[in-house]
Write a structure and sequence with these properties.
By secondary structure, the chain is mainly α. The protein has 9 helices and no strands. It has a domain of 140 residues: Tetracycline Repressor, domain 2.
Length: 206
């Protein structure tokens, strides 16, 4: 069997075990058994449990980022691009719950360098979302669009909300990816409309 195919089998098994058990409880014996290989072969290919976990994070992060970007059709109107990006995010996380568990829960609690890998993914997606928000606001609501600081804040808020909503949706089988995306799109779009119209909320004095 080609090395790339066998390594993919190992990573598939590792994502499933790490995603469901977490790093500490995951067993290299169990990963090897699920992959249909010997434990020494797993170590030969991927060096250590820490290296295997990092490889899982990177693969799942790259897959999620690619899914979001590929889900956005740049020929569509800006609001549709934002919608398609959100739907791609929720669809991917729903279809890959073990990978999402690694990225959203286990990697962040593992510490460095795992947390840094996830933060790099989050920064990449947030920057992409910020551009979608800027274009959507300009095309749909007119005007110059949000300021750089507002745009960055909105992107951070939207990504954070998407992460929390995906974690919730994945524990409730009744919540479809499209429904989760629609919930967040309605929430974000109403806020953008108010912002562009100058209807902003100001905190009370004192």
């Amino acid at each position: 069997m080609p090395r790339a195919v066998r390594e993919r089998q190992m990573l598939d098994a590792a994502v499933q075990i790490f995603g469901r058990r977490g790093y500490r409880a995951a067993s290299m014996d169990e990963i090897a058994e699920l992959a249909g290989v010997s434990k020494p072969l797993v170590y030969l290919y991927l060096n250590s449990k820490e290296s295997l976990f990092t490889a899982c994070i990177r693969r799942e992060a790259e897959a999620l980022s690619a899914a979001v970007r590929e889900g956005v059709d740049l020929s569509l109107p800006a609001d549709r691009r934002l919608w398609e990006g959100l739907r791609a995010f929720f669809t991917h996380t729903a279809e890959h719950p073990d990978g999402w568990a690694i990225l959203h829960r286990h990697a962040r609690t593992r510490g460095e360098p795992s947390a840094a890998e996830v933060e790099a993914l989050r920064a990449e997606i947030t920057a992409f979302v910020a551009e979608l928000i800027r274009a959507a606001a300009r095309e749909a609501h007119g005007g110059p669009g949000p300021s750089v600081r507002e745009m960055e804040g909105l992107a951070q808020a939207l990504v954070g909300a998407a992460e929390s909503l995906a974690a919730w949706a994945n524990t409730d089988g009744a919540v479809a990816a499209k429904d989760a995306a629609a919930t967040l799109m309605n929430f974000a779009w109403a806020g953008l409309g108010n912002l562009m119209a100058g209807r902003t909320w100001s905190p009370p004095q004192g």
